[in-house]
Batch of 3 targets.
Target 1
Amino acid sequence: MRIAMIGSGYVGLVSGACLADFGHEVTCIDSDAEKIAALKRGQIPIYEPGLDQLVKDNVAAARMFFSTDLPAAVGNSDVVFIAVGTPSRRGDGHADLSYVYAVAREVAVALKGFTVVATKSTVPLGTGDEVERIIREINPAADVAVVSNPEFLREGSAIGDFKKPDRIVIGLSDDRARAVMTEVYRPLYLNQAPLLFTARRSAELIKYAANAFLALKISFINEVADLCEVTGVDVQEVSRGIGLDNRIGAKFLHAGPGYGGSCFPKDSLALVKTAQDYGSPLRLVEATVAINDQRKRGMARKVIAACGGNVRGKTVAILGLTFKPNTDDMREAPSLSVIQALQDQGAVIRAYDPAGMTAARALLHDVHFSGNAYDAAAGAHALVIVTEWDAFRALDFRKLAATMQARTLVDLRNVYRPEDVASQGFAYFSIGRPVSAAEQKLAAQ
C-alpha cells in the first residue's frame, strides 16, 4: 500500500520505518526541511536502538522516502497517518492540537480518491470528529474516512513493540476503512497481532486511559516504597509479592524517582483536563499527577540526607539523565528536578549519560558533563544513579572509591543489592529499603 506519514518525529519515523519493512511504500513528510535533508543523508534525529539500520535498509530497498511535499504524498496515498506532536498546552495542561488541525487543513486540500486519514498522534476524545469536520468543511467532495489508530510504543524498544504488539487499536465506523486498515497490518498476522476495532472516540480514550493506568501503578508503588522505608520493609519483595497476582501483573511496579518522558506526564494531565471539562473528574489520575510531581523533587532530599543533611559546596555525581534507558529523550526526566533541587541547596553537579548529553546540555545549566561514569564520580561526595542504563549495573567500586571524596551511593533505581554495595565499604541508599545504622554513620562522615 502507499502510505504518507505526516510527522517525522519519534512516532512517525519509527512507524514509517516499520510499515516500510512490512513491504508498504512509505513517504515520511515533515515541514522541517533541514530534518528531511538530514534523513535523506541517513542521519537519524533520535536515538532508538535499531532504527538507523531499519531506515537505511528500507531506503535502499526503495520502500521509504522523505519529503517536505505534503500535497504530492497525500494525493498519491491510500492511507495518510497524522503523527505530529501534541504537547501540553502552556497555561492549562490541555493537549495542544494546533499541529494536528493544521495538518488536517493541508490534507483536506490534497486528497484524491478514497483515502483513509488515520490519527496516530495521541489526542483527546473527540479530536477525530474535529479532524473530519475540518476536512469536510474545506473539501466537501472529499472521499475520506477518518480513523483513530493510537500508538503504543515504548521508547527504547519501539521497533519490537510495533512489530510484536500487544494490540492494535483502530477506531472507525466505515467498512471501507476497516478493509484498508486491515491490509495495512496484514503482515502482522503471522504474529497473531490482535486487531481491536472500536468506535473512534473509544480508541482515543483507550490510549489516554492506558497511559494513565500505568502511571497510576508507578505512583502507587512509589508511595508503598515510602511506607517500606519507614517500616524497615523491602519494597522489592512487596513488588514481587503483589506482581505475581496475574490480576495485577509485575510490570510498572518498580519503585523509583517518578515517571517522565513524552507520554505519561502530558497524557495523564490531558486526561485530567478532559475529564474536568466533561464534569466527570478522575480523582485517582489527579492524585497520580500530583504524587509524581512531588516525588521527583523529593528525591533530592534523599540525596541530601545521604550526604549528612547538607550538600552546600559538595560535589554530587549524577549517572543517567534521560527519563529511561535506551533513549536520548529528556522530556520530563526526573534528573531535571533532582539536579535543580540539589543546585538550589548549593551542590556542585557532575553528570554523565550514555545517550542524553546533547539534549541535557540545552536544559541544564552550571553542570559539568563528564565523558564516563568514573570521570563524573571523581571528587564526588555522593554518586547518584537516576537512570538504570546497563552501563551502570556493574560499576567498579574499587575504582570509584579511589577517586571519590566519600563512599556514598544513592541508587534511585534499586540496581544493586544492599549487601553487595556494603561489602565494598560504601554507604548505600536506595528506594523503599531500610538503611543500616552503619551506612548512615558512614554517609555522615
Target 2
Amino acid sequence: MKLKNLLSQCEFTILSGDLDKDIVDVIYDSRKVTEGCAFVCLKGFNVDGHKFISDAVEKGAVALIVEDDIAPIDGVTIVKTENTRKTLAYMSVEYFGHPANELKTIAITGTKGKTTTVAMIRSILEKAGIKTATIGTLGIVIDNQIYKTNNTTPESYEIQQAMRKMVNEGCKAMIIEASSLGLKWYRTAGIVFDFGIFTNFSNDHIGKAEHADMEEYLFCKSLLFKQCKLGLINRDDEKWAEVTKDHTCEIETYGFDKDADIVAHNDSLIARPGYIGVHFETTGKKELSVDVAIPGRFSVYNALAAIAVCRHFDLTDKDILDGLNEVKVKGRVEAVPVVGDYTLLIDYAHNALSMENILTTLKEYKPTRLVTMFGAGGNRPKDRRYEMGEVSGRLSDLSVITEDNSRFEDVMDIIKDIKVGLDKTEGKYIIIPNRVEAIRYCIENARKGDIIVLAGKGHEDYQEIRGVKYHMDEREIIADIFDNLS
C-alpha cells in the first residue's frame, strides 16, 4: 500500500522524502521492524520510539512517522504529525481496510462491569446466531480462541488487525472494552462505533502513568460518546449527565430511575445449589422478566446494559432471556459444576476492595457457610495482604489461606502477612500453602448450602513462581479432584 494512502485521514508535514512509496506493514515496535515497513515512533511513559529510529532504519524501515524534528535520512521518508498514536490508529484503519465497516461494533466504558457486560452481550448475540468476537481483559476472543493482549484495550494496530481477522472468520459483531486509557491514547481512534455503553464511574486509575485526576479520568470516558452513533447510559450513576455532556450521538438510558428508557424493578436474589443469580423485570422500551446467572445487584445493571444494546439487533426476547440465564464470565463469580449441594465459584478478586465487594454480595444469599480460599501476590505492597486478610476474616465463616502468584517471594512470608490481617478479626482460618491441596480441602469438606469462593486467580491459567509461569487452571484442578473422588 502507498504511504500516501495510509496517511489519507491524517494531518502531517513531510520533513523529507516523498509519499509515493510502497509500504508492506505499519510497525510501532522497533523489535518487529521488517524490510519496507513504516515505523511509527510512539512516546510512552517509559519508552520513546524516537530513540530507536537508527535501529528501525537499519532493519529496513523506509518511512518514519515522528513527532520530533528529525534530520533527513537517505532513502527514508520522514513524516511529522502532532500525535503519532493518533496517526498510528488512522494508518492501521487504512492498512486493514476499514474492518469496522463490516461489523456491528459495540464499545463499553466504565470503571466496573465492562468484562461482565461484554460476556452478557456476547451470550445473547450468540444465542441469536450472530457470531460475535470480543476484545478486553480476557484478550481477543474469536471462536472461543483467546489471543493474549498486553492491555484491556490493545494498541490500535492490534485492534484493527483483530477486527480484520474477525471479519475473515465470519463474525458479524464485535464488542470491545474501551478503557479510559485506551480512549486517551487514541487506541480506538478511527472507529465510529454503532453503540457505546457507559456502565458506571468511581475512583480508579489515578497516577503518573494513568490519569492526572478524576476530572481527566471522567473526560476520557466521555470521549466514547463523541465516536459512536448511539450511547446507552446508566442513568442511576451520578456522573451520567457529565459523561454525556458534549456527546455527538443519540442517547438512551437504563437503570432503576423511573425516567430511564428501560427501567428495572422487582429485583430479587436467586439461590440454589450450583446457581446463584438475580431476578428482575423491565418496563419502558423493553418489557421482560429476567433471570441472570451472576449474583449481586450490580448484575442487574450489567444485564440492563446488555438488554439496552441487544434490543437493537434482529433477535427475540427468548434470545435475551436465555443468553442472560446461561451467561458465564470466565473468572468473574464463575460457577463451576460440582457433585453435591453446595456452590463453588472462581473469582478474580485479588485485593481488599474486590474481595469485600464479592463477599458482601455472597453473604446476602445466606449460605450455610461462606468459605473463601485466597492468597496474595508476591512483590506487591504488604498492605494489600493485611487488608485482604482482615476483609476475609471479617466476612467469611472460614478462610483457607494458600499461595497465589508468589513471584520472587517465599509463600510462607506472604501467608504470614495475610495472618496479620486475619488476626485482627475473630474469623476462623486454616493454612494450606499448596493451592491444589487447598482446593481439594475446600471440596472434600464442603457442607450442604455452602458457598465456596476460590479467589485471586480468576481467568488466569498459570502460577508465577521465581520468574516462571507454570500452567495452572483451577477448572482443570477441580475436574481432576472430582475424577479422583468418584
Target 3
Amino acid sequence: MQEHPAHSRPARAGLPVNRRTLLGTAGAAALSAAAPGFASAKGQAAAPRPAISVDPSRLPLIGDAEFPIGLWWPPPPFQTTQERYQEIADAGFTFIITGNYLFADAHIQRYAMQMAEAAGIKVVADDDTMRWITHEFEVDDDGGQFTLTSAEARSKISAVLNQYGSSSFVGIDHYDEPAPDKFVTLAQTVQINRELSPETLPYINLFPTTDPAYVRQFVDVVKPSLISFDRYPLLLDGDDADFFLNWKIIRDEGLRADLPTWCFIQTLAYSGHREPTAAELLWQVNMSLAYGAKGIQYFTYWTPDPARGEGFGPALITTDGQRTERYDASKNINLSWLSPVGRQLKPLVSESVTHANDAPLPAGASEFTPDDHIRSVDGGAVVLGMFRTREESNDRWLLVANRDHSQPTSVRLRTDPRSVTDVSRFDPATESYVPEPGARVTVDLEAGAAALFRLGRRA
C-alpha cells in the first residue's frame, strides 16, 4: 500500500475519502482521475506484452495453507524490535505490509524483515523505488516525458527485488488505490515482477467503489494475482450503505477471474468514522468471510502519528506503543476464530451469499430463497455464505453470520432432508466438526459472530 492510512468510503458528494487522500502520498492528479465512476483515462489499451501467468500454489500467502491475516502501518523504525514483532505474531497476524516510515530506507526495511523472520511473519514491502516507478512514471517503450522503457523499469524492479534477501520477504506493493490511468503501467510492472521473481507476490490494493467497471478493467488490464480492496463501513452516523454492494462487485469479479479476494477492516476512528467495538471488528471479519474473503487485513495496526494531521484515533497499538482493547480483541478474533475458520474456507469456492430476514435489504445484497440445501431460516437477520470444493463434491459449507454488530441473534435453520443427509458444526477450538441432530438447527450468535457448518449431501 502506500503511505496511506486512512481509507475509505465514497463521500456523499465528490471524491472518495480514503487512506491515500488522508495520508497524502499520491498526487492530487491521480486522485482526480479516480472520481466516482472511474471514467477510463488515456492509454487504456491492453498491456503491450502478453501477460504471463503464475501458478497460484507457488505464490506466498495465496498458496499457503494458512489463512492470510495481515496488517498495515506496523511499528515505526524506532519501535522495530524483536519484542514488537513477537507482539504482532502473538496476536495471530501472519504478514505485514510495511509503512510507517519503514519504506524510507532499504536498510530499515531489511532490519524489519529480520525481526519479522525471527517471529515467523511474512512481509510485503512498500518500497520507495517501486512507488517512484509506479507513481511518477509511465512504462512505455515509445518514450516520452516521465516515461520509463520496459528495459529501464525492469532494471529498477530487479534492483528492488534483489535488495531483500530475507526469507520473510514475500511480496512488493506496486500501488495502493490506483486510478484507471495507472492500469497499463501496473500491467507492465506486474509482468516484470513475475518474469524476474515468479514466487514474489505483486500486491495492489483497490479503491472502494460502487462501479463494477473499475474492478473489471483492473482485472482485465493488470491481470493481478488477487483482488484486494478497502472500504471502512463504521461511520459516525451509522454504517456505510454501500458496503455490501462493494463486496458484491469484488466477489463477482473474483469468481469470474478465479482470483482470491482480500479486504481491509477498520480498526480506528478517523474523518467521519467511529471507533470500532470488539463486536464491530468481528462483524467486519465475518461479513467479509461470508462474501468469500480469502485474506483479511487490518487498517491500521500502529496508530498513525498526530503530526500527520488526519486525526486518527487509537488503533491496536497507540502512538506511544501501548496496547488498546482492540489489540486484545483482534488477538482473540485471529487466534480463536479467523485463523482456524479461515483454514477451512480458504480452499473453498463461494457458491452463493444471501441475506435472510434482513429488511430493508442493503444495496447489492441478494435475499435468501429456499433451495435444496436450506428450506427456511427463521429468526433474526443473518448473512448466509455457501461454499463448495473446487473438485466435484456433494458436500457444502455454510457460514451463518449475525447481520447485527450490536445485538445477539438466534435463527433456526431447516435443511432439506431429501438432499442433505447430515449437518455438523465446526468447533474452532479443536478444528473438528461436531454432528448436529436432525434437520432443524438452532444457531445462537453473539453480536457480530458467525458459525460454520458442513452439510453432507446425497450423491
